[in-house]
From TrEMBL:
Taxonomic path: Bacteria, Bacillati, Actinomycetota, Actinomycetes, Bifidobacteriales
Source organism of this protein record: Bifidobacterium lemurum
Gene Ontology MF: a single term: DNA-binding transcription factor activity
Domain annotation HTH merR-type: ranges: 13-83
Coiled-coil region(s): 101-128
Keywords: Coiled coil, DNA-binding, Repressor, Transcription, Transcription regulation
Name of the molecule in the record: Transcriptional regulator, MerR family
Pfam families assigned to the protein according to its UniProt record, in alphabetical order: MerR_1
Membrane-spanning intervals of the chain: none
SMART domains xrefs: HTH_MERR
Amino acid sequence: MTQQNTTTSRTQWHTIREASLLSGLSESTLRYYEQIGIIPPVARDPSSGHRVYSEHDIDVLQTISCMNAIGMSLDAMRQYLGNATEVMSAEAGDVDPLVVRERAKQQVELLDAQALRLAEQLERIKIQQSYCAIKTMYWNAVAEGRADAERILDENSDLFEQVRRCA
């Protein structure tokens, strides 16, 4: 879908289905994110009233899709996108350079906090994998009729407590 804008250039517009395919976010998620303010109100086709997405909108949606994929909270996404919008305004000369630096620092803090949450999640997963490996060793020992099956469990009792704390 293309639409002529007020200048002589043509703007590429995308339907919600196309936006969904290009961003990896479902159509219902796009509507929801608009409803709760993660993304600003989307333009509408004047003849049909359907949502239409610009190339810039698609870029933003792809960023949101990545933030969603890394598990960023909706509040953090909202802050991240607000900061990014302010920085883009600065590029147009509308924002003080000191504000840009502050927003950039906030972006780093948001991303560092998410990276820390992911590292903690990874550590829990590693503990869970170790549990699976020990239990597999135990059940293999039982299946083979080996006398050391109980010893495997006894030697790894501390791991079982760690797994319970992961829940």
